Amino acid sequence: MKSLRIYIIVLSALLVVYLVAQYNRPKPVDWSLSYSKDDKIPFGTYVLYNRIGDIMPGARVISYREPFYNVLHNYGTLHGAYVIIADGVNPSKYDTEALSDFVNAGNDVFIATSYLGESLQKKFKLRTQMVLDDKHTPVRLINKYLDSARNYNLGHNAGALYYDQIDTVHATVLGVNKNRRPNFVKYRVGKGNIYFNTNPLFFTNYGILNKDGEAYAAKALSYLKPTNMVIWDQFAALGPDDDDSTMRVFLRYPTLRWAFYLSVFSLLIFTVYEAKRRQRVIPVIEPLRNETADFVTTVGNVYFERHDNADIAIKKINYFADFLRANLQLNANLDDPDFYDRLVQKSGVDAGLVRHLLDHIIYLGQQQTVTDQELIILNNLIDKFYAKTK
């Protein structure tokens, strides 16, 4: 009994030391794509949300976390500038119609996103594409009054996306990447305008606090007409309000989070001691030899000796297609124009990652030989897809 008391005291002391160390250690930088107006992490939009009044003096900024249709009909919103900064925007048909009516009445809408949903793509004949394996793609504005010769470079693949299809009759190109591919366009709809931009990272905290990002964001948003109201959308970035689960809210606050960890740790200690006091001795049984691992090692050595990267790439792509059929009920038909959208929606994976993976698979399918680097890129993209599939 005395030894048990000493054991508990030692464990308690170690727990206190651990908690103090955890409390005082530097917090790692959170690079997740939040786009939340409340987040001060690099890819939140706290800075722009609180300083957009510098671009539109006197304008009242109202944030909504509801679909376009609800905002424009339930709250009697008739005039203002609608700003959407998100990784992806996928409105319904009714949302798109409501947004078009809002613009037609003389208002402006600014959408900076990496992915446009099917309804917006069809209505405005827009489609995004990515510059592969280029993390430093500069962008620029082509309006001569906005220093059209200046390149804006943010890193982090901020300028990698562009529009490979636009409505050349109705669209006006306002910005391009280094290959002169459009990434910022304007559509005139009735009395108003809707702006599409493929570079949402330029409008995040990281972008605004960067010299190039600040200049680019200010100039891009300066196209919006002066207004008394700015409608700031959070639905595209965060989803509906009821999307926050109880556990997610519980872990959001440090005090509640540490209370949860302490409770779990205490329960674990209790379980260990109870098991030690009551459980009988369990004989040690040698585990069975894993001959599957030996087989995998042998097969791997054979492929290493042959160094047939093209064959390995084909097999990995076939296994990926089998995974899609078995888990997502999707046939991997790269010739189907709707396959990309269905894969994004069913898998829940970032649209940029899906586009990068499919483009790389198409590229490898056109090659006679595959280099080690190309095979590594394929393997990494597929592993990321598996890890992020919901």
Describe the protein.
The protein is of the alpha/beta class and 390 residues long. The protein has 3 domains: 2-27 and 245-278, no CATH class; 46-243, Rossmann fold (3-Layer(aba) Sandwich); 291-388, no CATH class. Helices cover 47% and strands 15% of the residues. Strand 10 (182-189) and strand 11 form a beta hairpin. The longest helix has 25 residues, at 254-278. It is globular, with a radius of gyration of 26 Å. The model has no long low-confidence stretch (mean pLDDT 83). Keywords: Membrane, Transmembrane, Transmembrane helix. The chain crosses the membrane at residues 255-273. InterPro entries: DUF4350. Residues 38-219 form the DUF4350 domain.
> Per the principal axes of the C-alpha atoms, what is the gross shape?
globular
Q: How many discrete domains? A: 3
Based on DSSP secondary structure assignment, what is the total number of beta strands?
12
Q: Please identify, by name, the CATH architecture of the largest domain.
A: 3-Layer(aba) Sandwich
Our count of helices gives: 15
**Order of strands across the main sheet:** 1-12-2-4-11-10-9-7
| Class from helix and strand fractions | alpha/beta
Quote the average pLDDT.
Answer: 83
Indicate the proportion of strand residues.
Answer: 5-15%
Low-confidence segments = none
Pfam families: DUF4350
Transmembrane segments: 255-273
Domain DUF4350: 38-219
InterPro entries: DUF4350 (IPR025646)
Features:
390 residues, alpha/beta, Rossmann fold, eight-stranded mixed β-sheet, 12 strands, transmembrane, DUF4350, transmembrane helix
